[in-house]
Amino acid sequence: MIKLKNVTKYFRVGFFGIKKDAVKNLSLNIDKGKITGFFGPNGAGKSTTIKMIVGLIHPSSGSVEINGYDSQDYRARLNLGYLPENPSFPRGIKGIDIVKYYSKLLNKKIDKNSINEVLKLAGIFYARNIHVHKYSKGMTQRLALAVSILGDPEILIFDEPLSGLDPIGRKEFKDIIFKLKEKKKTIFFSSHVLADSKELCDKIAVLVGGRLIKDESISVLEEDAYNYLQTKTNDTDVTENGAEMSDYNTPLEVYLYDLMLKNKRN
Amino acid sequence: MKNILYTAIYSFNEIKNSKIFYSFLVFALVLIFGSYFVSQTSFISQGRIMVDFSIFAITIFNIFIGIFIGSSIVYDDIEKKSIFLSITRPVKRTEYLIGRFMGLTAAIIFSTIIMMFIFYLVLLIMHKYVIPFPIRSVGRAPLHTKTFLTLYLLPQSLLIQALFIIIESVFIAVVALFFSLITSKALASIFTILVFFIGNVSSRMNTLVMPAKKIINGKEIIVHRANYVLTAAVHLIYSVLPNFSIFNISSEVSYKISISSEAILYGIIYGLSYTILLFVISSLLFARRDIS
Ligand SMILES: Nc1ncnc2c1ncn2[C@@H]1O[C@H](COP(=O)(O)OP(=O)(O)OP(=O)(O)O)[C@@H](O)[C@H]1O
Ligand SMILES: [Mg+2]
User: Fold this and answer.
1) Where are the beta strands (DSSP E) in A43-185?
2) Radius of gyration over every alpha carbon of chain B, rounded to an integer in angstroms
3) Do A91 and B13 touch (CB under 8 A)?
């Protein structure tokens, strides 16, 4: 269980160190054993929030707790796997050695079999003996995914896991998520691909401009979306703003799109 | 402990595979071989020229490794974002930092040993500065003892110089690491080079600004006094910045003077305490830092 309570994060930018809010007064509970999707436009603060959860960034105020431990405490990460956005690895080391190294940093014993297993699951087993700087973006992404699911952690935090993957890769990744879901893992992943929402998530959180504007279960959201579309089609100036039904296939996607657009304007 | 060890091994491998480490190592080896030819230009004291030249090469290239890898070992890891996966494991940030630094220390020791070994081979070929140490079979009658193996040892001062080079380079590396946590990599290297340079001349500067005294008729008389401001500034720099000249014992080495155990101990304690202090400060800075 992950609890964010009134979390605000500002960065100091420029020569004079002017404060710029990236996340504003965010309170969010990530439920155990559920998949929570974290959506929002570019620069909304998704990665910043995720980095605060995994302890890379300190919140300016408020608190982040994982299983009762503050996110700065290493014990908060005893059972956590993290896939960063645009992952990268040091040069000159083979894929397999990278995974071996990270397996040593876990407080668990991990044997050769389970290392091979995660490599196979992530679909990078064939390239395990290649130096990682020769990997393509998608291959690096897959290797990082293998690292993050190493040791079968209970909590998985993925920052834009689908970016950089080919259609087959996306499908494979979704299958991995479904497998993890069967094992009752807690999964929190960010994305801006709205089509991922319904397929994968139990819950959806929407962040725009550093503010949480929605945090609901899929069923509630679908109902809202349905109602929204009812009123929307009655409106006259549909085409002026808002999404076209042709761009987005489901009412939920249209609803989320319009929600982000509306809040971005304000 | 386990985390530190694995991080150290990993960092060591990373450094060992890096181009910058190789090039410094190769440069140093070329210079050590080159010292043989340099010494041939002189008719006298060829050995001394060789020793001076080679110690200079070994020192400067290990210092370079300390500066350039020290300022990038954590900085690049943050910049390239490869740190994201390591410190989000159940590892303390301090463990990560110690591991990284230990890996660099191992690399410095490794390169010093290789350079010293090559240097030893060159000395062996030239038959200079090596001390023959015959191993004899012990027979009853003295006439029957036979030398069946002669080992060639290096003089004590040369071995101590190697130790001091390691301590000095590790010290420089922690300075570079410290600067790299508060500024950019390029600035960190420049600052470290400055600290190193000043640290090498500060003790000489300090003696220069001391009042010049003469003893006339049994009385001490000050004949010249430098500008007060200048004196104070030099004293301040001398006492605040580390003094690196104590690690340079190449003149003792070239004259084959043994180093006293006090001097050895002083060098070790001086270097280690400064290194640990700076490392603790770096570690505190690093723990509070946002990594993004
Ligand atoms: N280290 C930093 N220093 C200054 N500003 C930062 C820093 N990191 C993020 N920001 C700012 O915080 C805001 C949120 O950034 P963040 O990376 O969290 O967005 P995001 O939702 O992940 O976007 P994207 O979908 O593009 O990945 C942005 O305005 C960004 O400029
Ligand atoms: Mg992001």
Assistant:
1) 61-66, 69-70, 80-83, 155-159
2) 23
3) no
* ipTM confidence score: 0.87
Number of H helices, E strands in chain A: 8, 10
pLDDT tens figures, B13-22: 889 888 888 8
Predicted local distance difference test score (pLDDT) of residue B126: 82
**Ligand number, closest to the Cα atom of A260:** 1
Task: Return the best residue to mutate from A8, A10, A11 for the ligand 1 pocket (most ligand atoms within 8 A of CB).
Answer: A11
Q: Please indicate if any CB of chain A lies within 8 Å of the CB of B213.
A: no
Count of CB atoms situated within 10 Å of the CB of B206: 16
Instruction: Please write down the HEC assignment for all residues of chain B.
Output: CHHHHHHHHHHHHHHHCCHHHHHHHHHHHHHHHHHHHHHHCCCCCHHHHHHHHHHHHHHHHHHHHHHHHHCCCCHHHHHCCCHHHHCCCCCCHHHHHHHHHHHHHHHHHHHHHHHHHHHHHHHHHHCCCCEEEEEEECCCCHHHCEEEEEEEECCHHHHHHHHHHHHHHHHHHHHHHHHHHHCCHHHHHHHHHHHHHHHHHHHHHHHHHCCEEEEECCEEEEEECCCHHHHHHHHHHHHHCCCCHHHCCHHHHHCCCCCCHHHHHHHHHHHHHHHHHHHHHHHHHHHHCCCC
Distance in Å, CA B87 to ligand 2 centroid:
19
pLDDT digits (tens, 9 = 90+) for B263-285: 999 999 999 999 999 999 999 99
For the CA of A39, the nearest ligand: 1
pLDDT per residue over A20-65, tens digit each?
989 999 999 998 989 999 998 888 899 999 999 999 999 999 999 9
Cβ–ligand 1 distance for A46 under 6 Å, the answer yes
Is the shortest distance between the CB of A191 and ligand 1 below 6 Å?
no
B138 pLDDT above the threshold of 90? no
CATH fold group of domain A2-79+154-265: Rossmann fold (3.40.50)
Q: Cα–Cα distance between B47 and B36 in angstroms, integer?
A: 9
| Sign of the torsion angle spanned by Cα atoms A144, A33, A170, A54 | negative
CA A37 – CA A197 distance, rounded (Å)? 7
Q: Are A197 and A256 in contact (CB under 8 A)?
A: yes
Nearest to A38 by CA among A171, A224, A175, A162: A162
**pTM for this predicted structure:** 0.89
The count of C-alpha atoms lying within 13 angstroms of the C-alpha of B153, restricted to the half-sphere facing its C-beta, is 9
Q: Which residue of B has its CA nearest to A75?
A: B90
Domain boundaries, chain A: 2-79+154-265, 92-149
Q: Are B135 and B150 in contact, with CB atoms under 8 Å apart?
A: yes
For residues B72 and A146, give the distance between their C-alpha atoms in angstroms, rounded to a whole number: 27
